[in-house]
Request: fold
Amino acid sequence: MSDHAHSETERLLREARLYSTACRRATLGVLLGSDRPLSQAQIADQFRDGGFNKVSIYRTLASLVEVGLVHKAFLHKRTWHFEAAHRCSQTQCHPHFTCTRCGATFCMTEVRMPMAQGQPRGFVILRQQVRLEGYCPGCAG
Amino acid sequence: MSDHAHSETERLLREARLYSTACRRATLGVLLGSDRPLSQAQIADQFRDGGFNKVSIYRTLASLVEVGLVHKAFLHKRTWHFEAAHRCSQTQCHPHFTCTRCGATFCMTEVRMPMAQGQPRGFVILRQQVRLEGYCPGCAG
DNA sequence: AAAAAAATGCAACTTAGTTGCAAATTCTGC
DNA sequence: GCAGAATTTGCAACTAAGTTGCATTTTTTT
Reply:
């Protein structure tokens, strides 16, 4: 990780009152640099020389989710994918598109969805998530 | 299962060109009678006297999904929940609401969501799914 | 620099879902 | 209805994402 990225992740962790540790800086750095949500295994793959234990990565992700720096974006094939929260609003992230042919997932930041309306009285909606399925440009046509 | 339900599930299975077997009739009957998506374990719980092997239920669900009688509604705690497809359109089911306090899930059949628009050129959207989170009437307030 | 607080790594575990195969059930053509 | 083909079922063993307990190491505080 570059010095710049190091100080950026360090600042975010400090603001969140989390210990600035190697595993947290590395994990957060990978997520901030990714244009799509990543699983624990995909994050681990990005670490050179040694890397971190999967348990540590899972616990790191849990702590980042708890303070709101990271979101659990979606489950794909029974595996959680995480993304940095910096481009998500309080009540909804951009939709995620998964290609049913090749399995790739994309962040649909251009697609705007209105918040759900018309729920029965008594229900309080705090967050909504939209998943899209279909063919990506490479697999369509 | 009542005689009426038996003949109804049998008809649906025949139309779908599936063998009408005890496990399929029972599974489909349970899903048709449920007002919310169910997991394999929840379906198995509804079977009296003996029931069926979990492998058979999983394979039954796979066959019902393949012919379109049943949908994989959503993953909750890494567990798939299935629902009969009779009230879903081709491109989207009703949103599903999960209470973050008690964990219960509800079908929000009253909530209408427009199909996503504005995706980058080349993407073909075939289905969309909306998940809602918040407090149910029992847990809010 | 020492003590306190928290993170890390390891091994063992949990659990939803899957696979291969033999036995049982359902369907097809007579 | 009945024999044979096609398909489903149950069982045991397996897979893999994620979790837990605990001893060790790192980070922070004073």
